[in-house]
Amino acid sequence: MISIESEMTERYPYLATSELRQMARLAWRNSHRCIGRLLWNSLELLDARDAATSRDVFEACIHHLEHATNGGRIRSTITVFQEAETAEKGIRIWNQQLIRYAGYEAADGSILGDPRQAAFTRRVMAMGWVPPSRRGAFDVLPLVIEVPGESPCIYQIPPESIMEVPLSHPEFRWFAGLNLRWHALPVISDMALVGEGRRFTAAPFNGHYMGTEIGSRNLGDEQRYNLLPVVAANMGIDVRSSRSLWKDRAMVELNAAVLHSFHEAGVTIVDHHSASAQFMLHVSNEEACGREVPGDWSWLVPPMSGSACPVFHRSYSDSRPEPAFIELQALWH
Ligand code: ARG
């Protein structure tokens, strides 16, 4: 009987870096939830397949943050680690993104920080992570890295590798007093790059932000930072009647603050109208090449003013071709 491992080495020879880069670019082009795909062909690859220990993986992640942040002129980047030898095993980064803010649950059930990270925060604290002595709403979580055969290791990211943008509003002076901020770089770290039977279980990748991801969802969602009531109250809008459209008006100003602040800080960001227009250009480029565009309408349409964006007014292909980025089962629950 041939062992699975020798079978795999035979069937899957080591990819050249250029082949791996192309695989990653195609996976981006196939990402049915992503509105930013016009830029798929510019994805940069950092080939880290020689990282052997969790410390090596951590160092490559720091290098990724610095390369991709690039002082604010964000470069779309993927770092690919060693291929998983079997379907179940492989290097794993436990964090959902390389940069995420802790969510601390108080005894009364209220949460300081990002509620979406509350369970993960509890877990890393149980593993020995010590939060800053004065806990805040924007404390960056440590990385948890697991290499097969070793127990998971926790690493604190050096603050100088993390760029953040303090939020202010172009007109409302009081806005800066809310002391809000967000990180410049969204690096998804819990998805695998797969295709042709290959599986890279650690392959963190980033593009740049679209403003609504922060202004509408991260800061606006009721189950996230839930800031619409706070912003509306400061604007002096009547929050007792939904007919005042206080949520909508607060959401517009929160988004205006995000776009303004990133722009002022010299950090790449795109508004949802430009992103939508760029996506339509991508669709026509693809159609001109005879390819259909895999898409999930419910993800592609921006969470604010959807029908004012051209992406709203058409449908997309249900095909889900590979190479692809796929969701992995979290290891830490
Ligand atoms: N929506 C996620 C966040 O707010 C990021 C997802 C990826 N976004 C991107 N622009 N590449 O952090």
What does this structure look like?
The chain has a four-stranded mixed β-sheet with strand order 1-2-13-10, with helices on both faces. The protein has a three-stranded antiparallel β-sheet with strand order 3-6-7, with helices on one face. Strands 12-11-16 form a three-stranded antiparallel β-sheet. With 333 residues, the chain is of the alpha+beta class. It has nine helices and 16 strands. The two termini are 36 Å apart. The mean pLDDT is 96. The chain is globular and about 65 Å long. It has two domains: 4-100 and 140-315, no CATH class; 101-139, Nitric Oxide Synthase,Heme Domain,Chain A domain 2 (Nitric Oxide Synthase,Heme Domain, Chain A, domain 2, Alpha-Beta Complex), CATH 3.90.440.10. It has helices at residues 4-11, 17-29, 54-69, 118-126, 211-218, 228-235, 246-264, 272-288, 297-300; strands at 44-48, 77-81, 92-93, 103-105, 111-113, 143-146, 153-155, 164-166, 181-183, 187-188, 191-195, 198-200, 205-206, 209-210, 269-270, 324-327. The relative contact order is 0.16. Arginine binds next to strand 14 and helix 5.
Write the layout of secondary structure elements.
Elements: H1 4-11, H2 17-29, E1 44-48, H3 54-69, E2 77-81, E3 92-93, E4 103-105, E5 111-113, H4 118-126, E6 143-146, E7 153-155, E8 164-166, E9 181-183, E10 187-188, E11 191-195, E12 198-200, E13 205-206, E14 209-210, H5 211-218, H6 228-235, H7 246-264, E15 269-270, H8 272-288, H9 297-300, E16 324-327
Parallel strand pairs: 1-2, 14-15
Antiparallel strand pairs: 2-13, 3-6, 4-5, 6-7, 8-9, 10-13, 11-12, 11-16
Helix pairs in contact: 5-7, 6-7
Bound molecules: arginine (ARG).
